Each structure stands twice: as C-alpha cells, then as structure tokens.
C-alpha cells in the first residue's frame, strides 16, 4: 500500500512536465537599480501546443501602460512565418525568438521596467473558432535602502577613491600571497532534486613582514540575481530571501581561512549561470584590492530516471522508518507499563487536583470571554486594514499627480520668466519704434509734398508708358502661344508639378522645383489608385492619369527622349515619412527591338544604389518576361529584372507579401515595409 501511494505521488509530480501550456517567466521577479544587471522575460509554449487551440498563429509579449490603462504590445511573433515585429524600442535590450518562444532581455533595468507583463497566444480551436489565451507575471521594484545595498554603495565609492599604483610585479607578488578559492558540490545540478552548496574561501599563503593585509568582506554574487550573500568583518552573514542556509566567518589569523558558504536545498532553473566569489582586502599602506573567482553552474531538468532514483531513495527511507516504528512500539509498550504504575500515584493526587480544576474552570470562562473580545478586535483590525490599503493606494496616486503638477509649474515658471524678458525687450523696441515713427511721419509729410508735384509731371508720361507696355505684352503673349516648350527646362511655373505639351507633341508632367526644376516625370506612384501590374503593350505606350497623379509615360517615349540627348535620372522616395533620393549621371533606355534595355550608372544620393544591379537588363512584364528567373509574375510587377531584383518600384502597392511590395532594398530591407511614394524623372544634361 505504501509503495502504491508513493508511485501515485511520483506520477503526479512528473505530470506537469508533459502538459502543454502558455508560460511567462521573469528573472528576477524583484529588481533593484543597485544590484540587478538584467531583467529577462520569457514567453513560451511548452510541447509546441496549447490546450484548446488546434492552430497557433501568433505569440505576443506586452506590458501594462499606466497612461493607456491597458496592455501595450512590445513584440509580436507570427508563428506561421516566424516574422518578428518589435513594436516598442528599448535603449539597452536584446530580443531572441524561435519556433514557440520570445525572450526579451532588458539590460540595467530601471523602476519603469517594474511592471506587469503579459504573454498572449492567438489561434483556432477544433471548431475553427478564433480564440486567444494569455498569462501574466508581475515584476516588483525594491526601493528600501537595506544595509546590504548601503554596503555595496560604500564599496563602490571606496573603489573610485582608491589610488591603486601597483606595477605588474607588485600584482604578481600579491597574487602569490593571497588567494580566493570558489567551489561547488557540482557544476551540473538537477532542478528540485539535488541540493547546491557554494563555498568562497580566502587564504593568506605567505605573510609579508613589511606589509599586513586585512580581509574586509566576502561576496557571492549571481550574474542575474545580484548579491546572493555577503559577510563584512566583525558582522553576521547577510543573505538573500531565497536561501535556506548561509554561513561564514572572517578570521584575522592567517592560520584559519575565512569563508562564506551558501546552500540551496531546492534549486530552480533560474539559479543557472555565472557565480562570482569576491574578496575585498585592505593593505597596511592604505591600498584596497579586490580578488575574484568565477564559477559557471547549470541547473537542468531532472530526467524520469532521476525521479525514479529519488522515489527509490524515499522507499528505502520508508523501510528504515518502519523499523524505527517497530522499535518505538516496543518502547511504547514499556512506557505503558511504567504509566500504569504511575497512574496509581496520580489517583492519589486527584483529590488535590479537583480543587485546582475548579479554579481552572473559572479561568477558562475568563479566557473564553477574552477570546471573544480578541475575535471582535481582529475583525475590527481586518476592516481597518482594508481601509488603510485603499487610503495608501489613493495617496500613491495623489503623490504621482503632485509630482506631475510640480513639473508643470516649473515649466510654466520658466515660460513666464522668458515671456517677461521678451516683454521688457519689446517695450524697449516700442519706445525706439515710436521715436523712429515720429521721424518717419515728418519725412512722409515732406515726401507727400514732393510727390504731389512729381505726380502732376508723371501723369502724361504714365499714359505713354502704359500704351507701350500693352503693345509689348501683346507681342510676348503671341510669341508664347505660338512657341510651345522644347523640354521641361523651358517651363517656368509657380506650381511644383505642372502638365504641358512639348514641342514634339508629347504631353508630360514637369517638376519645376526639385534641384532647380526642369525634370520630365515618367513614373509616379502616391497612393496605389492605379494598378501597375500591366502587360508589355501598356508599358510600351504608357498608362495612368495626370489628374490622379499616378502614371507611367511609356517605354517608347522614354526611348525617344533618351536617344536624342544625354539625360540625368533622379528617383525620389518616401519611407516611413522620411525622404530619400538616388541620382544617376548615366541613363538611357534602348528601343523595343532591344527589349527596352536599361543603361545606368554614376550614382549619388542618400537612398543607396539599388538600380546598378539591373544595368544592361531587358524590361520584363508578366506576358513578356525576359528575365532568366521569370520574375514578373512571382514579384507582381514590371521591371528590368535580373534574378530577381534589388529594386521593384512597379511592384504591388501595399502588398502583405514582402517580395511583391514597392521595394528599394537598400532602405526597405531594414524597415521591412514598402515605400509610400515613388517618382522617377529625367532631365537633359546642360
């Protein structure tokens, strides 16, 4: 029966190891600016599946936003494509991810990082219904100043003030005289099965007659969890909250080694990593020295064999306990016999006890009354505790509001001071302007008198000038209407974009402002209202609408323009509200019999050169693909494809598939989104 019970306990203990669930873990769960080097938040799915979800689509890590009063997504992982989106940027952080996990590491966490974190998964159940599940974990911030934290601060200050002037020979000599030894019972520990003991020892190997050294403190630290335990000279051991046992002693005598030892009886996975043994030594000449050793430990999950061994050990202990019980039964039998003899002695004392019992009875009544009063008092205290907790929360909110108000008042005071300064300056300027105005008024009066006489003389002359100007303007107007511009270099217009008909009869849109103007725009996309997934004939002749602002001038027209003179090419792009451009001093499109081959070179700009890759390539469309890799259909565009592209400005607008988007790889690869504006234009060389 005992063996059966232990086996049931064993299978209950290993059952959670094989379940599937959504897990969020934070290490450590309490952070402090003094001792926490990093905060790790792990969001994962055990056994690659979650109960009630047949299909898992995405995994998202969020944290609570006090301003929004809701959880704000930090990063999201598409489990179907393994596409990770980082929605919140951190100054010092690292993100890793895999098939079913996201791990966020915040280096040097602050009080703002002490928050509630949520791990959520989205998918579908066996009935094809969309479902989402989540798990939350809180990280607390420790602000109380403890003796341990104050000691760390003091040693940091002492270390900064210490002027260490040791040469390499001195350092070698010290290392020969002093030594720190750091050891553990094992480098690989089974989680929740094996105990862990770490011992940090300080030894004085050789005593220098001219110099004495005194150990001031010993520390055992963890790379993530901070200080595990420490001991200062003539002080007791200080230990963390998770330790079961910590002991140590600092000896003045070189005959005894000073030591600090910590023991975990129940080791967790979070105790894995680098441990440091640190000794702070003060020398007789005033120098301070720090000696340290590192030890790397790994806490691993126990195997089924390990758990079976534990159960077998427990069964052995049960057998030993059974033997002890049998021995105790014999002892109890002897004790009963002794008690029987002593019972007779007790009966003789019963008479005396009767009177005592009456006294005890009255005392019990008094005790019952007192217990009732204590119960009432406990209920009263419990009620007041809830009220005090509510008041404490209200005070915290008020304190935060007061801090914000103080900050606003400080800003307003600065603004008021600045306004007062400006008002004083403006008053001085007004006085000066008033003086200037009085002088100008006198001058204006004099000018008016001169103007009246001048006006009389100019009246007749004005009529003659107006008549001559009218004739000249009429002549210029006739010449302008009769002579259309040869190119956009001859177009002067106050509008940045204007549509004109050139002397050749070609209707084009001109850019009159960029880099001095004079550009003929042959490709423009601003909002995706015109479909650019067209065939060979439409790209040859051109398509789109100048009024809408999206068009392609046509490869035949571009060939005719670039075959007569040398042209510069400029490409303007906008990505996430940031403007970019690429300019080329060599650009030409060959004829249709050459499949509108592109010649391009001489790059300059800030967008990166993503067009040179396509130099000497033929133009391809879905119905006439000249690329060796047949790129037009899979990339959903028309371009001078190679195998396949570094740029795809005629791709699908707003596509959810990266390879089909309107891309300029030198900038869009990093942003992982397509551009939101593209304009290709040419201008003849002067």
TrEMBL record:
One GO CC annotation: extracellular space
Regions annotated as coiled coil: none
CDD domains: FReD
Source organism, top-level taxon: Eukaryota
Matches recorded under SMART domains: FBG (SM00186)
GO MF term list: integrin binding
InterPro entries recorded: Fibrinogen-like_C, Fibrinogen_a/b/g_C_1, Fibrinogen_a/b/g_C_dom, Fibrinogen_C-term_domain, Fibrinogen_CS
Any single Pfam family the record assigns to this protein: Fibrinogen_C
Secretion signal, residue range per the UniProt entry: 1-20
Keyword list, A-Z: Disulfide bond, Signal
Ranges where the Fibrinogen C-terminal domain occurs: 479-686
Keyword field contains Translocase: no
Gene Ontology BP term (one): neuron projection extension
Name of the molecule in the record: BpFREP7.3
Source organism per UniProt: Biomphalaria pfeifferi (Bloodfluke planorb)
